[in-house]
Amino acid sequence: MSQNQNRREWYLLNCKPKQDERAEENLNNQGYITFRPTLTLKKKRRNKEVLVQESLFPRYLFIYLDKENDNWAPISSTLGVSSIVRFGQEPAKATDELVAQLKQRMLLQESMSSSTPRPDFKEGEVVAIDEGPLKGLNGVFSGYASDERVIVLLNLLSQQSKVTLRSEYVKKSLAS
């Protein structure tokens, strides 16, 4: 047996719109090893905040294959899969290190989101920016752009402007 046999590498698949999870599930059911980096976000659904998992790279999915020995034929016809990403004739590869880093970041994000809850601001509340380029300014909380970003209204140049900031840059203001 040569060293090239059983040499698995990560390849990139393109999924049909909004079918990343479906493609992942169907490929896993066929015995393939896949990886879909995700983020856990808080979203409003029917006036309730719920946690949802979304793909970090919508419409893309990693698959772990041996180029010589695995059966690639069923992949493109799997429900949810659009195609194998290629550069010319060669399928696009991702390094083991890249996939390991993405997995590590997912674990880190999960531990951070469970240990440091998103700040609980109310619309119209005065907030203080205590980090970043706008440090020292006060603004009015307008809403959440995502689990990690907030929208703040600032008076800049005699005009009210919406600014999106990392949520950890913003604290409740003592001046409210």
UniProtKB/TrEMBL annotation:
Gene3D superfamilies: NusG, N-terminal domain. SUPFAM superfamilies: N-utilization substance G protein NusG, N-terminal domain, Translation proteins SH3-like domain. Keywords: Transcription, Transcription antitermination, Transcription regulation. Signal peptide: none annotated. InterPro entries: NGN-like_dom, NGN_dom_sf, NusG-like, Transcription_antiterm_RfaH, Translation_prot_SH3-like_sf. GO terms for cellular component: cytosol. One of its GO terms (biological process) is DNA-templated transcription elongation. Pfam families: NusG. Residues 7-106 form the NusG-like N-terminal domain. PANTHER family: RHO-INTERACTING TRANSCRIPTION TERMINATION FACTOR NUSG, TRANSCRIPTION ANTITERMINATION PROTEIN RFAH. This is Transcription/translation regulatory transformer protein RfaH. It comes from Leucothrix arctica.
